[in-house]
Specification:
Blueprint lengths: L1 H7 L5 E4 L8 H8 L4 E4 L9 E3 L5 H8 L6 H10 L7 E3 L3 E5 L18 E2 L2 E6 L6 E5 L2 E3 L4 E4 L5 H11 L4 E7 L3 H7 L9 H8 L6 E3 L6 E3 L3 E15 L2 E2 L5 E2 L2 E14 L4 E2 L6 H8 L3 H11 L3 E6 L8 E6 L6 H12 L5 E6 L7 H11 L5 E8 L12 E9 L15
Parallel strand pairs: 1-2, 3-18, 4-12, 20-21, 21-23
Antiparallel strand pairs: 2-3, 5-17, 6-9, 7-8, 7-11, 9-10, 10-17, 11-14, 12-13, 14-17, 15-16, 19-20, 22-23
Length: about 425
């Protein structure tokens, strides 16, 4: 991560806060104040370790980390997902100060008044399939219980699959947790790929085959370079209350009984930085939303090959609203795109389809398309469709109304809609 900071120095604003702030609410208040900058809190009251936030809170920073243009992020992710690169650079864990677990020495933040406790929000859990040995890396929120234990929210995906199979055998699942990684590594870990594909090999593509892994000491797991590495296990047959926690929409998720992580060892780099992702902040939204864009792009491309771009908007929490740009070839293309997008990402509520002369990153331009190109029969409404569990407006049965907007020009009257040079 520090290499990335050096590479962006002078290009993006880095705010260093020298005043003492508490990890309980005060630090999060500062992060909310500087929502679009990289922030380093140098003086945390409860810890000797500084906090960093905001390294992935804009598409510009993410494109810099991927060494591509902002407009090409989706295609770059697709290329890496389709061509993961095996990792050959694996070394012993060196350059770290190691100690027994005392999680309370880390600056784990409490973000909001009703939070269930302090939360690790930028921790990637690395685990091996208990049967095949295939590695999985994924980000999960982890609530501090005590010096050695965390309650972890695991949704039914790959890590959940690993854990349930280990638990069925009455075995704990060995894991490592990496905090403070390069943004490209972090983004790769959030991608949605098949269970037989290794997210770290996707990250290795982002790093042009140069990603370095370290062998842990207590567990048989290899982890990417990170400021802080934790070693431990997810305990079988043990649960704890987890939550409340603020999710993407800025509303509280419920309390659940979730698995417990027992941390056995902590490894710290020299002068480490603890990465904290502000819940419901831009970094949270982009890291969760951008990895869904390739899935929508591919589905739309199968329907209309001339798709140009897909974005999930910040105003839609990078989850509920999408804008799709196409080079229209036939009437009805936009309607097919709407249906493909809604199917590819079931959490979507609204989809706007625009022509390729509209800048999808400029919401004023998108609004212009809606204002000047939308006709009375260009709105598709789907009632009682399954929606997102994160949507507070969804019905009790999980359904919602979805809307697709065709804001493209009619081909037969294209000249009527030609815009002056800008």
């Amino acid at each position: 991560m520090k290499k990335f900071l050096k590479s962006v120095k002078g290009e993006f604003e880095i705010i260093r806060v020298k005043d003492e702030v508490s990890s309980h609410l005060e630090a999060a208040k500062v992060l909310r104040k500087h929502s679009r900058e990289i922030v380093i809190l140098e003086n945390i009251k409860e810890s000797d370790i500084p906090v960093i936030s905001g390294i992935c809170n804009s598409r510009e920073k993410i494109s810099k980390a991927l060494n591509c243009k902002k407009e090409d992020i989706t295609r770059r992710i697709i290329q890496a997902m389709d061509q993961p690169i095996p990792i050959e650079n694996v070394k012993k864990l060196k350059g770290y100060h190691s100690q027994k677990s005392d999680l309370k020495k880390l600056p784990i933040l409490t973000y909001y008044n009703r939070d269930g406790g302090p939360y690790i929000t930028a921790g990637a859990i690395i685990a091996n399939d208990p049967d095949t040995g295939i590695r999985n890396a994924s980000i999960h929120r982890m609530m501090l219980i005590d010096k050695k234990h965390l309650a972890v929210r695991i949704v039914p995906r790959h890590l959940y699959n690993y854990y349930k199979r280990a638990e069925k055998k009455r075995k704990d699942l060995p894991i490592a947790i990496a905090i403070g990684m390069h943004p490209a590594t972090l983004l790769a870990i959030t991608t949605s790929i098949p269970i037989y594909v290794d997210e770290l090999e996707v990250a290795n593509n982002f790093h042009d085959g140069k990603l370095k892994l370290f062998k842990c000491e207590k567990v048989d797991i290899e982890v990417p370079e990170a400021e802080i590495i934790l070693e431990g296990k997810i305990l079988a047959k043990k649960r704890a209350d987890e939550g409340p926690f603020v999710d993407l929409t800025g509303t509280y998720d419920i309390i659940r009984k979730e698995p417990i992580i027992e941390v056995e060892k902590i490894h710290l780099r020299s002068n480490p930085l603890y990465h904290a992702i502000l819940p419901a902040g831009l970094e949270h939204k982009l890291l969760q939303g951008i990895p869904q864009e390739p899935r929508i792009f591919k589905a739309v491309q199968n329907t209309v090959p001339t798709v140009k771009n897909v974005i999930l908007t910040e105003g839609g929490c990078c989850w509920l609203h999408a804008i799709v740009s196409i080079k229209k070839q036939a009437e009805g293309d936009a309607k097919n795109v709407i249906m493909a997008a809604l199917s590819a990402h079931p959490s979507l509520k609204h989809v706007v389809v625009v022509d390729d002369d509209i800048n999808v990153f400029d919401l004023d331009d998108v609004e212009y398309a809606i204002a000047t190109r939308l006709k009375e029969d260009d709105i598709l409404i789907v009632k009682k469709a399954r929606g997102s569990s994160l949507d507070p407006s969804a019905s009790a049965d999980g359904t919602t109304t979805k809307v697709g907007v065709d804001a493209t020009k009619p081909l037969k009257e294209a000249e009527k809609f030609e815009r002056v040079a800008r």
